């Protein structure tokens, strides 16, 4: 079937809907927010699709992301009289996302959020708004028609002005480049052909396409968008990239108990300013920005902009198979997969996972256990060489990341010899702990902080 994810299992709880490929996860936008696409052209005729099941599948998928900021791209082309849901269904769908009896299992966790404690009259309806509307930062409607405008007028009395400001219309796919990582989008061939047709029809009135300048060589002090090897060569052979070291140092000192660490977004202008400073070799003092979430966003941005994922393209298929491994053998499987990593990648990964393990141990305060951290970091550590990860791939990718964080002490062994990383099984009762900082516990201010020997490993806090 066109658009079907080849990795989709028939045991998927919504296989009857998911097999059409109507909903897809398409990486992140330029602000680091997860992108979900909805393609109308993949909707079969109404008599072949249970629209109530489609609504349940939409909620099932969004529930995996709505606690973080996210973006929806709606490809309108392909919606016609044969597959168009009724207006009554659309209205009931809107009410479903605005109903008062939300998911009570996560309600206690939500009301613990300090931002929501300010109102003693917070209702479940507001909670539902918070999950589905509050964290939806952008809704991009591609190839809108008069039907969309009519539909908008119908629902306008029910939609808040604030939510309305999140909706942006794009007449052409090219307009998405400014906002999204276009090459990660999963765009149906039918939509691509339709867009080319529109471009040709309006060619006389459209500005000529701008020529893409040839890529410039990176600056000697470049930190973002360059390989680990490049950073090592430019930093006197130091294996841990400076941006990673400085952000981890700062967060370890001042952010471990910050609620929602790594889940909050930051000003795009601020992130770009800090990237520019780092790339120019200038000092960065995160204290000047007054927001502990900024270094967290910078850390994720650094990982996401690596030319090759930290876990490498080669390990992608192996990691997808983690869900097929018996639970008791998954830690061993993780160790085997990491055995194939280049030494440099392994050292950086061990450093990062040691820090995230420490973050997870403060989850009583920061609400970020290993599972929550895995949802945030999964796609920042591994992605396919072509396109973006499918929705069904998120489960094994996040599971693998969760295992690395949760069982850090079991998976990562201390080096047995200088310049080597060992993945040999440990002796019973052996211990290891998160890698300690190899820099002074001072403010992260630039790229010239001297490196000190690592402190001794501490005892493990739990075993598998």
- Write the element-wise H/E pattern from the N-terminal end onward: HEEHEHHHEHHEHHHHHHHHHHHH
Class from helix and strand fractions: alpha/beta
Report the sheet-strand fraction: 5-15%
The coarse silhouette is: globular
Distance between the termini: 42 Å
The counted number of beta strands is 5
Which spans have pLDDT < 50 for at least 5 consecutive residues? 99-129, 207-212, 415-464
- Sheet with most strands: 5 strands, mixed
Number of helices: 19
Question: Order of strands across the widest beta sheet?
Answer: 1-2-3-4-5
Gyration radius from CA atoms, angstroms: 24 Å
Task: Indicate the percent of residues in helices.
Answer: 25-40%
Mean pLDDT value: 78
Keywords: GTPase activation
Domain Rho-GAP: 226-412
InterPro entries: CRAL-TRIO_dom, CRAL-TRIO_dom_sf, Rho_GTPase_activation_prot, RhoGAP_dom
GO cellular component, one term: cytoplasm
